[in-house]
């Protein structure tokens, strides 16, 4: 049979082989594809690029959102600034005949010139009038298209601005509390202060065409001299007429007032003596702790630049530094309890009749139209030791006299007389005598250094009070006189005389100042403070005392004028109440 197989019958063997090879090729292709696929999924090359691409897109979106936010805030700030300026000008328009439309047109004109006219219309502006003046309110609402936030579906961001300005016809009381201590005489400080305070007064009064501002000036050093017209309106312990400084205790710095003697049960304040505890001169004082000069007395309630300028130009530098006492008088001048004193000053022609009702009441809470109470507190140093005469040397017998010609005598019962007494019926030689000592009353005359049996001036001599003595002699000189009076005019090398004064530490005065600053701010007084070439400790105290840190100015040299100018501009500009 096989031998008869034809060619046609043997042919299928080759196709079978070809089919096998084709099938094998498909298997290999599939295996290769599977391997490639496994390799693809296992291959990590390029993975960081993909992550970076996503991160870049995210960063771009976040940064873009920041750009949109900055654009929004910039435009909002520009709109708010334009609104504030426009309503301030509109509120202060001097023409009383101006209609509400005239006022609104001023606001619209500001926006047009700033390129923001599309953001506001007359309907967005409100004008109201009252006895206190004009009140202008405005609101702005709009939106800004976004560049990048639209990728997150935010096409625009809304923005708004609003403000209210009142015509500043309310009353204002300002107390300038100025350091005139001895250190102010260095580096032209007192001259720079005079110029700066002068400019301040000129600025505030030039802005006041309605007579609404009352200015008081409180020069202070180691003490504050209130002057006779004010000083005699208080109950004074151990009063004298050399100067009018009061001594305060710790409780006095926990209240802003000083009680006038017109108040039932008014407190009695020890009167601080005028004295010099540092110099040893034959007669007269050089550094008065309570300055007796009229130039540095308090100037209460003036409403003219000329009156303020006269006081400012006459300020002189002398003595220590008691910021706490200066501020005490500053707050008292703003407290309504001071009003009886103002009335008394007005009756004497020392205060304008238009100010006789000052200080006015503190405004009620949230009453933007009430009287503003402002203190500008300035110092070039920090607290130093406080000096005051001991009670023992404030009252009682002084054993000192003064003649009609002004010659002083100090009585002593210790004038020693040494003499030789004959102890025998007849004395012929030195040993017959006995040396005896007795003490008699004499009067020591400091101007001559001699003793006499009667005071200078004889029966016409008048007793001196302690205040008379300390106003004439420095405390070291007084000690010297007493020692010599008790030692026959000599001053033994080992001699000593009790100090006539006591002291309190600077840290105590710091604490008093902190207490008073807190009470003043709680009462609603706005406090600006100026550190003029001062110390680190003083800067800390002044910053804390100011209403806010932005109310504190740290200056050197002529920068003090810039500080006073900035404060003057701030207190006289129209008030943005919202």
Q: Give the CATH topology of the largest domain.
A: Rossmann fold
Amount of helix: 25-40%
Strand content: 15-25%
Low-confidence stretches: 1-11, 574-578
Q: Number of DSSP helices?
A: 14
Any idea how many domains? 3
| Overall pLDDT | 86
| Strands, count | 20
Which architecture of the largest domain per CATH? Answer: 3-Layer(aba) Sandwich
- Protein structure class: alpha/beta
CATH homology group of the largest domain = von Willebrand factor, type A domain
| Strand line-up of the largest beta sheet | 9-5-4-10-18-19
Most strands sheet = 6 strands, mixed
Distance between the termini: 121 Å
Give Rg in angstroms: 44 Å
CATH class of the largest domain: Alpha Beta
Overall outline: elongated
Helix/strand layout:
Blueprint: H1 7-10, H2 13-42, H3 47-91, H4 100-113, E1 125-130, E2 133-145, E3 156-166, E4 172-179, H5 189-206, E5 213-220, H6 228-231, E6 235-237, E7 245-246, E8 268-272, E9 299-302, H7 305-313, H8 323-332, H9 339-347, E10 372-379, E11 386-389, E12 400-402, E13 408-422, E14 433-445, E15 450-452, E16 462-463, H10 466-472, H11 475-485, E17 501-504, H12 506-523, E18 526-532, H13 536-545, E19 552-555, H14 559-572, E20 575-576
Parallel strand pairs: 4-5, 4-10, 6-8, 10-18, 18-19
Antiparallel strand pairs: 1-2, 2-3, 3-20, 5-9, 7-8, 11-17, 12-13, 12-16, 13-14, 14-15
